[in-house]
């Protein structure tokens, strides 16, 4: 009987230990591909080492992650949600995101103000942008302004994004801003892009379509993403990023803790790891994501390829609610005036 009692006691201890270990699993709703791979290398590995927790990925886009939070409102499977700014803003408006205890995050104070939600429901984890990409072999003087895209030497040598994608939307806003308009008043932008049409080789709908155009030197310049430029340049393509003096249009992937998350304290520790200078620098080097931590120092070559330093200070972040409201009319006008 004593042996049976001892065995039962050991079994109970094992069950308690297993239960404790299970409670230390953190579930991330995260983007796939190299983003997930580099997150595991830069953020998850040091986090697991420091906490003893295990991290599990549930892959999905921003829209898919928001849909999961809606479907499981109040009792989410996901402990940390990765979503782009516009989608995170929707989730916040629907009451799906909890308030972060930013005072408990050692790295929060080092984050740029434009990466912080004023209500503390999410925080940006890297900067992306719509900026100018160019071939240094063909463009001897690097562009410095959005206005440079209208120069006659780029006629038949330019690619821009279609309105169905982020760079197309952002280019409408940028063209409007530099011609006296704004996000709300895009008439000047549409008029300017109409004049640019003879220069355009392709209005791409997928970012990867730009790579072969640069490879075959069918284009010399494009409105494109710095992280795509960095990845292509690392593979040997002659391409570089220029951040316009008027400011690139910013893209901000965010991290948040869903309302009702089972492991909120652990989730906040993970977010603090994501915001750390160590992880931010690693992600800049591997993913070409601009660091949101102001203390990160990059070498000159890498810094030139990313939203970093002064380029961050100049970036414009469109109001996501305004974009959502106006996009249907922009898309209709683009189809009528630009795409034809």
TrEMBL record:
Q: Which GO terms describe its biological process?
A: thiamine transport
Q: Is Signal given among the entry's keywords?
A: yes
Taxonomic superkingdom: Bacteria
Does the UniProt entry include the keyword Lipid metabolism? no
Please provide, in alphabetical order, the Gene Ontology terms of the cellular component aspect for this entry: outer membrane-bounded periplasmic space
- Show which residues constitute the signal peptide: 1-23
GO molecular function terms here? thiamine binding; thiamine pyrophosphate binding
The UniProt keywords, alphabetically, are: Periplasm, Signal
Q: Which InterPro entries would you find in this protein's record?
A: SBP
What name is this protein filed under? ABC transporter substrate-binding protein
What are the top taxonomic ranks of the organism?
Bacteria, Pseudomonadati, Pseudomonadota, Alphaproteobacteria, Hyphomicrobiales
